[in-house]
Amino acid sequence: MKIIKGLAMMIFMGYLVLWIVTPTSVFYNKWLVRETAHTTSTYFEAQGNLVPLHIS
């Protein structure tokens, strides 16, 4: 049970970090630029940028 609580706490803390960092310049100048470059497709235009951010 402690492992599940610890894992849930880590996921929750990561979620909070994303809510805090998203409106900052670090997100727009570094993370979003990198994720946009990795998810841009020739055939489908721009794709979801925040999904890889949540996974990585």
Order of secondary-structure elements: HHH
Radius of gyration: 14 Å
Distance from N terminus to C terminus (CA atoms, Å) equals: 25 Å
Strand proportion: under 5%
The amount of helix comes to over 70%
Unreliable spans: none
Outline the structure in words.
The chain is an all-alpha fold. The protein has one domain. The protein is built from three helices and no strands. The protein has helices spanning 2-21, 25-39, 50-55. The longest helix is centred in the N-terminal third of the chain and has 20 residues, at 2-21.
Task: Briefly characterize the structure.
By secondary structure, the chain is an all-alpha fold.
List keywords for this structure.
elongated, mainly alpha, 0% strand, 56 residues
Furnish the topology, listing elements before pairings.
Blueprint: H1 2-21, H2 25-39, H3 50-55
